[in-house]
Target: 4-hydroxy-tetrahydrodipicolinate reductase
Amino acid sequence: MTQLPGITITGASGRMGQMLVKGITAHTGARLVGCIERPGHAWIGKDIGLCMGGAALGVTVTDDPLEAFAVSQAVIDFTAPAATVEFAALAAQARAVHVVGTTGLEPQHHRKLDLAAHHAVIIQAGNMSLGVNLLTRLTQKVAAALDADWDIEIIEAHHRMKVDAPSGTALMLGEAAAAGRGIDLATAKQSGRDGITGARKRGDIGFSAIRGGDIVGEHDVLFAADGERIVLRHLATDRSIFVRGALKAALWGQSQKPGRYDMMDVLGI
Ligand SMILES: NC(=O)C1=CN([C@@H]2O[C@H](COP(=O)(O)OP(=O)(O)OC[C@H]3O[C@@H](n4cnc5c(N)ncnc54)[C@H](OP(=O)(O)O)[C@@H]3O)[C@@H](O)[C@H]2O)C=CC1
Ligand SMILES: O=C(O)C1=N[C@H](C(=O)O)C[C@H](O)C1
Model:
């Protein structure tokens, strides 16, 4: 009998980490084989199920990623950029599929992911949900259909603990809008207006970030012209949508060649 793909979760004690542990344990097509936390973390050496306040799951939290990755077919990683690039090199060494949900990645992090992707499959997206990935496609289409008389603004809202802005999703949507318009986001991006900013520059793509309470994630793409507006909106009310997407990606990645992929590839949209 062939074994189900074994998955290791990095940042297992985090908001997404714990949801992923629950999601994999309940999944009939995958096994939880490893949980990583950083050295010194209170959960190291303990059973992940007990740490989360439930029944034992038979998986001990470790601070040794390579040992865990060596027995894994996939690694699901929702941590922080500096950790993610280290995990990418180790996952590539173990030839495990690396699913990256971590946001706040800068060009230097992407270059390291590109290097690791020579040896293993990396699937990275600022948002793993089906809804947001569809919205991204729609944003590109709408932006392509409208000219620069339509100002594009992306407004996002997240919980008070989020550390990066604009969100990974907002940047994905901005990239899609720029691609639809045939421009480079780096030259059009306008983020964090404050003070005497002057009038809006034609063609800019604006970003605004709200942080508060326990908001899971809300994104509006606003197309504003004289006399009319279009708003494309996605509201996340439960983190299980990201878990579903990440698990789908981990399983899809098992049959792919080494390289960089995103959720559009996984979803075929
Ligand atoms: N792409 C998507 O669909 C989604 C992406 N995200 C992104 O996922 C990331 C995590 O979000 P969230 O779960 O809310 O954040 P949390 O802060 O709750 O969890 C992050 C976890 O990663 C751990 N971590 C950080 N650095 C390391 C390291 N070097 N080694 C081991 N573990 C480490 C943290 O440990 P410690 O507490 O010790 O620092 C923590 O357990 C963010 O970038 C967020 O934007 C979130 C939801 C969906
Ligand atoms: O940090 C979060 O919580 C989320 N992060 C992702 C992002 O930066 O867009 C995805 C989702 O919106 C939740």
